[in-house]
Amino acid sequence: MEFQNTREFAQQLDAQDELFKYRDEFHFPSINGKNVIYFTGNSLGLQPKRTKTYVDEVMNDWARLAVEGHFYADKPWWDYHERFAIPLSEIVGAKPSEITVMNTLTVNLHLMMVSFYQPTEKKYKIICEEKAFPSDQYMFQSQVKFHGFNPSDAIIEIKRREGEHNIRHEDILAKIEEVGDELALVLIGGVNYYTGQVFDIKTITQAAQKTGAFVGWDLAHAAGNIELQLHDWCVDFACWCSYKYMNSGPGNVSGCFIHEKHHGDFELQRFAGWWGHNKERRFKMEPHFEPEYGANGWQISNLPILSLAPYLASAEMFAEVGMTKLVKKRNLLTAYLEFILHEIDEEIDGTEFEIITPQNQEERACQLSVYFHGQGKTLFDYLMVNGVITDWREPNVIRLAPAPFYCSFEDMYEFGQILKKGISK
Ligand SMILES: *Cc1c(COP(=O)(O)O)cnc(C)c1O
Question: What is the pTM of this model?
Fold first, then answer.
């Protein structure tokens, strides 16, 4: 498609967009009396209007029924988490039994490492990406030390090549082969939080499993953003937070995938709690733990229903639209944003910034990370007071995520105009 940097052209794309109507289903913050242009759905998604109904329902059931709500609420609390199995399995390409929702992301990754990182003297190394999300780095270091190994020896980061912004797939595959028998676990972010690079989950998973390692994925920036087939790709486990693209609210619960092939392995270590116990006998208070079959057998605690309610509202919204439509709009919207950025850069002098996210559509999703050569932070502040919420990362990067659920093509055009004024100032 030939793009044009005009308001009319952007409005025409909005008119053809079958997801345009969903914009009205979200609450937008406003600045100077106008709805903001929101580029930080990769950090905290907007609140869907239907969420409040789901939360009110729990509040009302609690008021009306108190403890009886566990069994007699409209959506009973004792197995409320099972309502996620169908919608989330569609979103991440899983079987319903492979899905559970519990805790928060880093906590779940730790719990998954209890099962899938059991190092021995010979097989103890972890491969991750260079500059992984800080929480993941702290997690790796503490896990490795917990098992008595030295982080500088046991943690292997795949590096970017000198002068390049993204990690090459061939370098990941080569490193997996090099570490070989010593490799215990590969755990990488499916979409890099800083550059927006999308990794080839299927190929990397296969290659690492050939060495006998387990493979897990941190899908914080991938769930609700890219098409996933976790079951078919034979991923051992994956976890994601729900508050980024999935719009479930600040700090909210984490989704968790555990492949079916592990469900019958009751020898696999896991940290147990009563919510993972055989469902029919959970309240019999038996002394011996017998895990529920499936991902729910990794549950530990009585679930935070007031946190699950907003996530259920948004998970159902995602399932209603489906990833195929979201991905189709995402690609067009991101390509349009990329076009606008290049147009504005050229209209100024062509040297203001560069996009460090891969150009190739297969290797990127919703996010474009823009490296500013000049006054990045001043520009970020300028955008904010002018109604554009973006995200700032040291040393000089502004991340832009035009979430397809609620961002419009006209937003992209409008952003370009504001950006141009900001740079020309
Ligand atoms: C956002 C994010 C997290 C956050 O984890 P919490 O435990 O929910 O705070 C972890 N890992 C990655 C890659 C992230 O992008």
Answer: 0.97
